[in-house]
Design goal:
227 residues, 8 helices, alpha/beta, 26% strand, four-stranded antiparallel sheet, binds adenosine-5'-diphosphate, 33% helix, six-stranded mixed sheet, 10 strands
Amino acid sequence: MIRFDSVSKEYPDGTVAVGGLEMTAPTGKITVLVGPSGCGKTTSLRMINRMIEPTSGRIWIDDRDTTTMDAAELRRGIGYVIQQAGLFPHRTVAANIATVPMLLGWDRKKARARALELLERVGLPTSFADRYPSQLSGGQQQRVGVARALAADPPVMLMDEPFSAVDPVVRDQLQDEFLRLQGDLGKTIVFVTHDIDEAIKLGDQVAVLRVGGKLAQIAEPARLLGH
Ligand code: ADP
Ligand code: ADP
């Protein structure tokens, strides 16, 4: 479980991106943060892995206060996927996927085997292992981004508009595959999107934010007001 306990973020220029957020993302579920551009979704997400430090408040993962944890240790337990997969262009697909395992000191063989296993999991042929990211379509790169985030089997996944940059047909496919994958893996996921349809499709729980980073409502998709 991830719990925001009165979390605020004010940027140095005085912008209040997140204002006293109280929210829980349950273990093993997909919690979607949705809302208009600038409502503090990305800021909220990045405070979970401490790419951004809150101005005040605490974020708990289970019984641990992340704000007092060693950031490197914290991030080992958190996969992170962004909109433009953010793959390393000069590393092969397998090397990209194995990034975290290699940092953790896995031997090469084991890391490669894990990369091949994950390629299959995200619906790509293992023959892609030795390609470079530029030799993949946008949708395929996103799949590799998901595989890379899963490599060390983190219990928590943070996903920031992971499917927004691909065309609608591929997006639909990626969403379906993602739901199937999550059905097997049961990660604790916080997923950011500005697209309410995507939020309703993917979320076990949907948190609607409004500008200033305040919660307008949080509910199961079927119980969202106005839908
Ligand atoms: P969202 O992801 O919902 O679009 P963000 O979390 O990116 O929202 O941004 C929330 C607010 O904080 C916006 O007003 C944005 O302009 C502002 N903001 C984001 N990053 C910074 C920054 N580094 N410095 C100042 N303001 C920022
Ligand atoms: P999409 O419709 O999914 O965006 P693309 O038109 O980008 O697909 O690519 C179609 C197919 O061609 C994909 O299987 C992709 O892996 C392959 N492909 C694209 N660019 C290259 C390349 N530079 N080298 C080798 N294969 C490529």
